[in-house]
Amino acid sequence: MKILVCVSKTPDTTARIAFKDSNTVFDSNGVQFIMNPYDEWYALVRAVELVEAGGGSVTLINVGREDNDTILRKGLAIGADDAVRIDAEADSAFFVASQIAAYAKEQSFDLVLLGKETIDYNGSEVGSMLAQLLDMPFVSHASDMQVSGSEATISREIEGGTEVLSAALPLVVSAAKGLAEQRIPNMKGIMGAKRKPLAVIPPVAVAGRTQTVAFSVPEAKGAVRMIDPDNMEELVRLLHEESKVI
Question: Which of 9, 134, 228, 235 is 20 to 30 A distant from 109 in Cα terms?
Fold first, then answer.
């Protein structure tokens, strides 16, 4: 099976969030970046598991500049066979999906995997756009996936239960928690990743469809107010007069 795994670089979850240039650009000064956890822990690891069980190859793809090579090398250390970086700024979901689709159309992948969302924008847009551009079926938020021959059986959590779907390959799937368990690269994998191919290719021309007007950070949380459990009248008053529904 030939699998493509799309990975993104995101700020660490503990990073300080700030913006510059009139709040139109994320300020990356002092920020530590990581591979998007949904891409790494679930999409990539499940791809590696499928290849380990049934043979094939796993290719990583990323849209970004040279500093993204670090996360690609980590993916190679986890078990991917090769990597491709499209040398462009990932400035919108449509741009990223278009770049990946342009590459994937020439490669005949059986399965395309990516995280259900990135932890910075939480947009959940690239997977569906990519499937449309590739003219493939799309299943989102997969928490379990088994592949037999040319068919995949996929489970995903829904309100009140679990939904089980079957779909023919080729297929695009976005990965949610539960699809796989995180793997930590071992020394053998880290050393081997240095010898695995990482190709850098130019982007294709894509007309922009969106423009960032401004970013804003949420208001700071207020201090906790403790109410005596015997003073229910005061609690009711605060809920009526001072509480806010977000």
Answer: 9
